[in-house]
Amino acid sequence: MTQAHKELAMEDEIVARLQSQGWVYEEGSAARYDKQRALFPEDVFAWLEATQPDELAKIVKPGVGPAAQTKAKDGILNALAETLSNVTGGGGTLTVLRKGFRRVSARFQMVQAKPTETMNPKTVQDYQRNVLRVVRQVHYSITNPNKSIDLVLFCNGIPVATIELKTEFTQSVVHGQVQYKNDRDPGADGKDVLLAWGKRALVHFVVTDNEVSMTTDLKGAKTTFLPFNQGDGTGKGNPLNPDGARTEYFWRDVLDKDAFLTILTKFIVVRTDEKPNPVTGKTEKSTSLRFPRFHQWDAVEKIVARVSEVGVGERYLIEHSAGSGKTDTIVWTAFRLAALHRDNKKVFDSVIVVTDRNVLDKQMSTAMRQLDPHHAQMVRIDGAGGSKSGELADALRLKTPIIVVTIQTAPFALKYLREQADSSGGQYAVIADEAHSSQTGTAAAKLKTVLSPNEQADVEDGGEIDAQAMLAAELPQRAETPNLTYLAFTATPKEKTLELFGTPDYDDLDDNGEPLPKPFHRYTMRQAIEEGFILDVLQNYTEYKVAYELGLKAADDDIESVDKEAARKAAHRWVQLHEHNITQKVDIIVRHFRENIAGLLGGTAKAMIVTSSRKHALRYYKAVERYVAKHGHDDVHALVAFSGRVIVSGDDTDIAPDELLGVGEYTEAGVNIGAKGKPLDEVLNGPAYQVMIVANKYQVGFDQPLLCAMYVDKRLDGVMAVQTLSRLNRTWAGKDRVYVLDFVNDTDDILAAFKPYYEGAVIEKRTDPDLPNRLAVQLDAVGLDRIYTHDEIEAAAIAATDPQATHSALVSAIDPGAKRFLDLLRTAREAKDDEETQRLDGFRSNLNNYIKAYDFLSQIIPYDLEMENRSIYYRLLAKRLKDERVGVVVEIDHITLAKYKVEKKATKTLNLSTGEATPLTPLAEMGTAAARERDMAHWSEIIDAINSLFADSGLSADDVVPEIEGVLRDAKKDPVLVAKAKANTDSDFNADNTVVTEVLSKFIDRRERSEEIINALLKEHNMETFANLLALLGFREYLATVDYSFPPADVTIELEPDARHLETKGLVGHSGGAGSTSARDRGVGDRRC
Question: Per-residue pLDDT for 1088 more than 70?
């Protein structure tokens, strides 16, 4: 048997490869290593003689004797060694590589970074003279001469990296890590200076045939190694290599001479953080070397390479999971792009970074000073020195390399950039960090085109918005942006983000032959979990079931009729805010926290309660405070986080003031008196508080590593489910599992929300580019020459875009169409012409549909001027045609909670690795409909709908409800129906006849169990009733947001003793079990509150 399986053979091959790539290697060169100084002296002087002979001559005088030369050279080596070792005094390896060192009157530079342009021949020559050397079996220890390291890498005589090799035939990567921990601790005194932090080698690698790991800080058993692998598919490790070892990429790509010099000169930085210790709450200072992980280095290099190749004007989506180190990646990307040149010309006048994270500001500023201490410039636009517009104008005029703006400032900044690019030909890069911020004012209106209804509702209730939504809303209205490059960094790209920023893959086409958009670079949630950077938050997921039934305080005939849909929503919110509901859940939460969570992490574990609204959060807070006081618990103290102010008055229509939350005005600072005005994310650090109750705040972008439990009492869908639950995924010593108790969501829905992001988001079809054209045809069919003319469209467009145009010109172009529409609508209503009324309301709906589709697609597709003119006219006309009928307010004083029960269903491990992920869906065809006429009914009539539907069929609700439940669950899995539900309003969706047809087909698919039901539904009059029932059940909302789900048959409802005297006519409750005496009392389905 040969010796090919041994480390020696592996070492021979690696050294030969490096030598072929330009590294210097000489057999026996280890003997020339100076272990006292931890330098390779001959390379130090080879470098200095080749690049700085005049400076060298100041110390090593020409013509002096050998002894004098030796002494002078020793002085230089000693000065270099002392500066390298003086980390705390302003020296260290990185400082020497960036700034050089001094010896008497001479100043020496120790490396030349790759120049960004070639105008200076000496700089180019000096770069080519860098000496990279690999030395084998280096005996480095002063105290133990037998200790050696397999490979040491030198740059111009300075050791910068060490490598321990292990072949998989004998040992694994873990053996190498253990060897570093046990045998290569430099100790507190740092006598083995080669390994001492910051003094010589900057990084230490363990490399096997299959894996690479690294560390920048050797400290014995406390040493932490990080993987430096490519990823195998979407998981950890490295893929098979048909030509050899899986780690060949490391030697070929990472240790390529140019690549490695770039890492040394343009990546590695020292970072000092000052932040509160989560356990003690005291601010602590820590310093670390930031060496890029593989995916960070790979992403930055690929971005730079692509921009170098094609120039300005493209868009890039970087899908990097939580735990990927996006902050560092953004810093490195911004620095590289700010300095990038093509053909000796600067590519970007400025790089604009959109973020609200102060930590990114500080890290970027520090990194810039280190990486380019002579030329680095960065400015933050914050209005501190005057107006933000003035600051931005000055920064752009001065071509400041990096400009940081907040999410609130970004809309103005992007508009200004476009104007600058158009007027002066400036070229800019815009990097959007996945930050989140409160959003108000005019920018929020634009965001409505890119936010779902649920996201809009959250923002209106004080919620936060992320940079990808802002950037999507503020992109130019032209597809081509030759002077602007956009880069979006996110862990959870939405459908529109993929379409707007994804890179077209011409090898993967959709059904229409269009290339599907893909992230430019990806680091998946799966890889981050498997590599140990984040935790899997779905391992201990407990679902609770809430069943309830409402009663009436008075006879039904004495109560005015109410709008059915509004009543359903109002009742749900009333139950959600009801004192009994919250009190029962608080009992479960506090008991669970004290029994299962409080003792974790040495008694420092924290928890979060996620609520649906600010009032909901306040009521929870009051209930928690009351509960712990009543039971004498002094180990559970809560904070409540919300934005703005909440006013509770006797006129509130959702729930009346009560003992839990009385009349008054509430603010975050006023309620959390113990916080003393400090930000609550900081106050949660330390032992004083254990629980954070949140309402649309701290659900995204909040890092608290001690969070071990989350109690969810809010509907979470899609990206919001992932972002909210991911607050638990931060790692901490001893934190090996987290817990979720969910009172609202179905585990299947949560798993479905996570699946697309576990292995990377994909979209199966692009939004149809002809969608605006089809909508224009529909609008013309109703409105052309009846409501508007082509001449009016053109006149409005000119008036809206011509700087010389007057307000009167704009009014005269829009006013005729508005008047014609309103006259037609009034005539139709007076004549009770339902068909014409529906047609006109559909026209009004389609105006907004066109605007929404065009605003999105025009950022991707270069439509012609006529389409642009339509968008201008339709947008202005739609503002004049708003339906002024106010929303319905339902009085809830007459209902009461008759039956209520909350019980644990099961604790599950939601397995992300099984099953297929559902692709993200593009913008769907939008329906048109009349505005929904208010469907008025007594409370009791609402429950009768299900009975009347099957009145002549011989079927009872006991027969029908399970089948309807099954069909609706099937419908939830239909991507076409779900896409329609997400894209449309209730009125548009409910008016779409294809919806009823699709649901009927699902009954047919279940024919064996539902033949009688099908026969009943196929009766002509019942089809309309069935459509009305779907609307009543909130079918669109169910598909789009999973607003409620139907209960399993084994959940029962218990009658509360104090409600037995009430007349109970169910509105929403359980579909069977104790306390349910008839189909009338069952309700239209179970609601989770």
Answer: no
Question: Tens of pLDDT along 255-275?
Answer: 999 999 999 999 999 988 888
Q: How far apart are CA 202 and CA 194, in angstroms?
A: 9
Exposure of 244 by Cβ count < 10 A (0-12 exposed, 13-18 middle, 19+ buried)? exposed
Tell me which residue of 407, 454, 455, 459 sits closest to 614, measured CA to CA: 459
Is residue 312 within 8 Å of 482, Cβ to Cβ?
yes
The residues near 651 (Cβ < 8 Å, ≥ 6 apart) are: none
Range of weakest confidence among 299-313, 738-752, 1003-1017? 1003-1017
CA dist 564 and 1029 (Å) reads: 11
Inter-residue contact 212 to 161 (CB < 8 Å): no
User: 107-116, 362-371, 465-474, 940-949: which has the minimum mean pLDDT?
Assistant: 940-949
CB distance 482 to 313 below 8 Å: yes
The H or E element that residue 290 is part of is strand 283-290
* Residue of 1010, 887, 873, 898 whose CA lies nearest to 950: 1010
Please check whether residue 1082 is in contact with residue 1069, taking contact to mean a CB–CB distance below 8 angstroms: yes
- Cα atoms found within 13 Å of the Cα of residue 419, Cβ hemisphere only: 10
How many angstroms separate the Cα of 957 from the Cα of each of 463, 949, 1078? 41, 10, 9
CA nearest to 154, candidates 38, 280, 285: 38
Question: For residue 453, is pLDDT > 70?
Answer: no
pTM of the model: 0.80
Tokens of 1031: 């609307």
Helix (H) or strand (E) holding 549: strand 541-552
Strands 212-215 and 203-207: antiparallel
Report how far residue 696's alpha carbon sits from residue 437's, in angstroms, rounded to the nearest whole number.
Answer: 11
Which two tokens mark 219? Answer: 């400290």
Contact of 1070 with 1076, CB cutoff 8 Å = yes
Average pLDDT over residues 356-379: 71
1028/1043 Cα distance (integer angstroms): 18
Q: Are 536 and 912 in contact (CB under 8 A)?
A: yes
Residue 527 φ/ψ, nearest 5 degrees: -65, -40
**Contact between residue 622 and residue 630 where contact means Cβ atoms under 8 Å apart:** no
Amino acid in the structure at residue 495: E
Classify strands 212-215 and 226-227 as parallel, antiparallel or unpaired. Answer: antiparallel
What residue spans of 759-891 are helical by DSSP H? Answer: 771-783, 790-801, 807-830, 834-857, 865-880
At 430, which helix (H) or strand (E)? Answer: strand 428-432
Could you identify the residue written with the tokens 């060496």? 291
How far is 1011 from 963, CA to CA, in rounded Å? Answer: 11
What angle (nearest 5°) sits at the alpha carbon of residue 599, between those of residues 594 and 601? Answer: 140
Query: Do 269 and 287 touch, CB atoms closer than 8 A?
Result: no
Residue for token digits 């839990």? 660
Tokens of 505: 């893959």
In sequence order, the 6+-apart residues with CB closer than 8 A to the CB of 505 are 515, 516, 517, 518
